[in-house]
Amino acid sequence: MDKGYEKEVFKSISLKASVAKKFNSYCKKLSMSKSMTLLLMLEFFEDNGISPTESMGPKMQTLENLIKKRINGVIAILKDIEKGQTKPTVAMMQSLFQEAEPKKQPLILEKKNTEEKQPKYQERNQQDL
């Protein structure tokens, strides 16, 4: 029994046999009674302001445009966050790390001195031979 409609009387509606067969199979898919299925269909059309004779084209285009506007709004918010928060924070962090890095100065090593001295020493040994 349909909840809330138990005490209502039944009225008959005349339908063509092919339409009645299609409607019965649709009711079985929804697992609802014929009365509730028809009521659900009528409420859908009324709530959405559409008529079965209208095409869904303009309504779907309106929905698509609304979604595109919202996506563009989200993109604008993300760009604003990037400009206002992310990039300045990254710049500050980079400046801190650059100041924290020790300045690279060439170290005075004895290797340079020994390298310069070795060829002279070798030259002397070769001259002595």
Description:
By secondary structure, the chain is mostly helical. It is rod-shaped, with a radius of gyration of 42 Å.
Key features of this structure:
single chain; 129 residues; mainly alpha; Arc Repressor Mutant; BfmA-like_N
Query: What's the number of helices?
Result: 4
The gyration radius over C-alpha positions equals 42 Å
- Biggest sheet descriptor: none
Q: Which CATH first-tier class of the largest domain would you pick?
A: Mainly Alpha
Which stretches are low in confidence, meaning pLDDT under 50 for 5 or more residues running?
A: none
Structural class determined from secondary elements: mainly alpha
How would you describe the shape? rod-shaped
Q: Within the CATH hierarchy, at the fold level, what is the topology of the largest domain?
A: Arc Repressor Mutant
Question: Which strand-content bin applies to the residues?
Answer: under 5%
**Based on DSSP secondary structure assignment, what is the total number of beta strands?**
0
The share of residues in helices is over 70%
The average pLDDT score comes to 80
InterPro entries: BfmA-like_N
